[in-house]
Structure formats: C-alpha cells, structure tokens
Amino acid sequence: MQAWQIKDSWGLENLELTEIPERPPGPGEVQVAFQSASLNYRDLLVVKGHYNPKFPRPLIPCSDGFGRIVAVGQGVPQDLLNLSAITLFCPPWQGGSPRAETLRHTLGGPLPGVLQEYRNFRPEELLILPEPSALTPAEWATLPCAGVTAWNCLMEDAKLKAGQTVLLIGTGGVSLFGLQIARMAGAKVFLLSSSNEKRVRALDMGAEAVEDYREVPEWSRWVLEKTGGLGVDVVLETGGAGTLGQSLKSVKVGGHISLLGVLSGSKESINILPLVMKAVTVRGVVVGNKQHSQALHDAYLQNMVRPVVHETYSWNHVPEAFRALSSGHQFGKITIEFPDRDLKTQESGE
Ligand SMILES: NC(=O)c1ccc[n+]([C@@H]2O[C@H](COP(=O)([O-])OP(=O)(O)OC[C@H]3O[C@@H](n4cnc5c(N)ncnc54)[C@H](OP(=O)(O)O)[C@@H]3O)[C@@H](O)[C@H]2O)c1
C-alpha cells in the first residue's frame, strides 16, 4: 500500500510517497481503509521538524482521517465490517482529564498517522459513525483535531452558555469550528481576521462583529467598545504569546481564556497584571478525549451544521496541500482525498 512518509530528514521537501507493507488486522483490531484526511497546523510543524524533532522516523504524518472498516481481526464482532469511522487525535484518551502517559500517544507523531491507505486500530480507538451520509468524507475528516479542540475549549472547559460572548482570533480551522459551536450554543461571536474577504464570510456565518488584527493591533479596545466596556466571557486563544496580552485586556472580570495556539509565537514577555486584577482563568488545552469527540459529533448532527472545507487535494498532491496550509490563505480546512480503490471487505481470520 502507499503511504506518505518523512524518512531521514525533516522538511516538507522530504515528504515522500512510499510503498509500505499492508498488515492484516491482528487479534482485537479492525482495519480502516482511509477515504479522506484533513491537515492541521500541527501536522505542518511535525513535518518541518518544528513540533518535536525527536519523533521517530520514518513517520507517517497527520492525525485526522475518515474511512471504512474493511477487515476485522480475531475476536472482533463481524458487525463492525463496513461501518465508517473517524480517528481520535489521542486514541488512548477515552475520557476524563489528560494524563502524561496518555498524551504521549498521538497520531501523526509519535504514532503513525493517517496518510497511509490502511491502518489498524482497536475499535475503541475510533469514533464509529452511525450516520456517515450526514456529512461528506472530507467534512467528517475535519473533526478529530480542530473540531474537538474548539469543542473542548468552549463547551467543556469554558462551559459556554447562551447569551455569553466569545472572541476568536483568525479564521483558521479551530476558529471556524469555534464560530459554529459558539453559534450553536447561542453565544455572540467577535472575530479578528487579517482578510477582508474572510471577515465578510465570518459575518455570513453569524459573527456579531469583525475587525482586522493587523490594521488594529490594539484590538482589545475594539472588543471593549463592542461589549459595553465589559470584555468577552471567553477567548479562544489561537494566536499564542503574541496575542495573549491583547486577549487579557479583552476578557471580562472572571472571564476565561482557552490557551491553545502558537500562531504568533510561544515566547513573549507579557503583562500578567490584567490576569490577576480581573481574576481571569487561563487554561491550556490539548485537543480532547473521545467523549468530547462524541459530543461534537452529536452536536453537528443535531444542529445539521457542516464543517467548512476550503479545498480538497488529491492523494498525489499532499505536499501542495501542506504548502497551501502554510500560506494561511485558506478559509476552513484543507483535506486530502485518498485514491479511489475497490474497498472490498475481507473475511475475519476466525
Ligand atoms: N492545543 C491544541 O489542542 C490545539 C489544537 C489545534 C490547533 N492548535 C493550534 O492552534 C493554532 C490554530 O490552529 P488552526 O489549525 O486553526 O490553524 P490554521 O488553520 O493554520 O489557522 C491559520 C489562520 O490563523 C490566523 N493567524 C495566523 N497568524 C496569526 C497571528 N499572528 N495572529 C492572529 N491570527 C493569526 C490567520 O487567520 P486570518 O487569515 O483570518 O487572519 C490564518 O489564516 C495553531 O497554533 C495550532 O497549532 C492547538
């Protein structure tokens, strides 16, 4: 089977389409034939060797995939055959709080990721989808990292309620999921974007007001003006160290900042006084567990909302897809379509 791999050296230029052996599912495993994958900013950092250069190589990148179970190993019920599933970013994290030993096992580094035609999992390591036709394969493939992260931040961590206010920074994958989830919850969204076209699209998707973070670097003043001087209840902090200072000024007394991204860097000197004086909760978030994934799935089905897919690249054009992600021009997720092959289901070895 084919797989995209980083072998000897990190770097997008070293991402290679390779032939690797296909392994039948072992006892207790199912084999998923992937149909779609989506790219995250993390995957780009991993491929470039900027995320963790100690990850083992050869490495198959990417955490987010959708596919069909085409074979089951010994001891696995036959009725799982032909069901569709999405991956979990951190397969052993099934529920509860994150633990160090669990967070070490994430797809697309250090564990082999989804840019391979087939991959074996234990059934509990997947979210099995009862209604796969509700979304397209590409739409399903966007959920595991960006979608679950936005859900975890807003609904589990900040416990967002109707009528509350949310600030989103940029229009990347996480922010657009944040916009959709916040609107489902009945919250008001203020959104920052450097692109006029994207700001218009965010308004179309239900944002209350939008502003340009490049033209207005002191955007906390805009947030305060829009919220009657109070600030927002929740900030989805995708920007990182370069935007945290403004976020602290933008959040209300007793408000919540979900700290998850590093788009503007991870090291900067920050005035922490507003954090203390406003009794703000700042909480780091690392994607989410299987229960968050299930809750996100249920919310998208119930509200009949579709994730935003910007563009889909074919299997042979994965490096171009990464370059497009790197450009930052996208509005929504970039996905990969797997080769159209005959996904025949196999008999189990029982
Ligand atoms: N902790 C976690 O669990 C977790 C999970 C997922 C993602 N993340 C992190 O969260 C961040 C966002 O991820 P993503 O997948 O949404 O990324 P993405 O899709 O690549 O987002 C890119 C967008 O972010 C905005 N942006 C870029 N640089 C910016 C800056 N300096 N200041 C403000 N906005 C900026 C731009 O929006 P405009 O074009 O609209 O200006 C850009 O289009 C990344 O750092 C990623 O690593 C963390």
Folded structure, characterized:
By secondary structure, the protein is an alpha/beta fold. The chain folds into two domains: 2-142 and 307-337, Medium-chain alcohol dehydrogenases, catalytic domain (Quinone Oxidoreductase, Chain A, domain 1), CATH 3.90.180.10; 147-284, Rossmann fold (3-Layer(aba) Sandwich). Helices cover 28% and strands 24% of the residues. The chain has eleven helices and 15 strands. The chain has helices spanning 41-48, 100-103, 137-140, 143-157, 173-184, 196-204, 220-226, 241-250, 273-277, 290-303, 318-327, and strands at 2-6, 15-19, 30-38, 64-72, 84-87, 118-121, 126-129, 165-169, 188-192, 209-211, 232-237, 251-259, 281-284, 309-314, 333-337. Strands 3, 4, 5, 6, 7, 14 and 15 form a seven-stranded mixed β-sheet that branches. The chain has a six-stranded parallel β-sheet with strand order 10-9-8-11-12-13, sandwiched between helices. β14, α11 and β15 form a beta-alpha-beta unit. α4 (143-157) crosses α10 (290-303) and α7 runs parallel beside α8 (241-250). The model has no long low-confidence stretch (mean pLDDT 96). The structure holds NADP nicotinamide-adenine-dinucleotide phosphate (NAP). NADP nicotinamide-adenine-dinucleotide phosphate (NAP) is lined by residues 40-42, 145-146, 149, 169-175, 193-195, 198, 213, 238-239, 242-243, 260-264, 285-287, 325, 328. NADP nicotinamide-adenine-dinucleotide phosphate binds at residues 40-42, 145-146, 149, 169-175, 193-195, 198, 213, 238-239, 242-243, 260-264, 285-287, 325, 328.
